[in-house]
Prior knowledge:
Elements: H1 7-21, H2 23-29, E1 51-54, H3 65-73, E2 78-80, H4 91-109, E3 114-119, H5 121-131, E4 138-144, H6 152-160, H7 167-171, H8 177-184, E5 193-198, E6 217-220, H9 221-224, H10 231-236, H11 239-250, H12 253-257
Parallel strand pairs: 1-2, 1-3, 3-4, 4-5, 5-6
Helix pairs in contact: 1-3, 1-11, 4-5
Amino acid sequence: MLAGLSPARRRLVLAVVTLVALAGVLTAGLVVRAGSAGSSPGPADERPGPVLLVPGYGGSTASLGPLADLLTAVGRDTTVVDLPGDGTGDLNAAARALGSAAEAALERSGAQSVDVVGYSAGGLIARLWAADGGDGIARRVVTLGSPHHGTTLADLAGSIAPDGCPEACRQMATGSDLLRRLNVRDETPDGATWVSIWSDQDEMVTPPDSARLEGALNVSVQSVCPDAGQPRRAAAQPDGAADGADRVARRGPGELRSRRLPASQRLSRRLSWSRPSS
């Protein structure tokens, strides 16, 4: 199911699969956010509720298949959210679809909260949903390689092929009206635990640290799994990503927050725009 992804995206998904499998360990070590004393506590953590997986640009669910299968295998109620149309339309409409899926999951399960995992543009959808009241029922929101501050690939698509850059594409451009409105306020609303995970080698979200969220636990795969920065070695040793994910789960939040990405960020030379890969 990962065959349609770039090598960097495959490594990211492998790492995240293990991270989510170790969610119980992560929960013990995470705090909602630094300096959040006095903020609303959010849903109770004692009983993890359903998990909602939100696809990226294009609405393809294939890349989330391994994660959904693993979560279902360990007993979690897991749903891959269907995005409206072909997944390239208004991200606000997609956020409303996520809201409907969350309500249905709570009604079906009787749980008090949901965990949301947003892949690429799905992370923006999760943020829009949370900002519109979803934070009241979100226990944890995890974003995977999401363009929280835009991607230069959307800038390029909008400038050289505007007819081929649908609404969601335009909304992911750096400085778009949607991103300005989303980021002018609190990037991580009180209530949920926020985690942003990305790969320094991301070829779709450029620059990769656009995935960084103020107030979240920010983790680059390479900061805990150096092999992920060496494509050939990482591809030959997929367990390296899992080992790195295990190290994320075992570290305290203070140690993880102290890590920083390298100062220099390289823009991808492969300026391709592929709907299923985002």
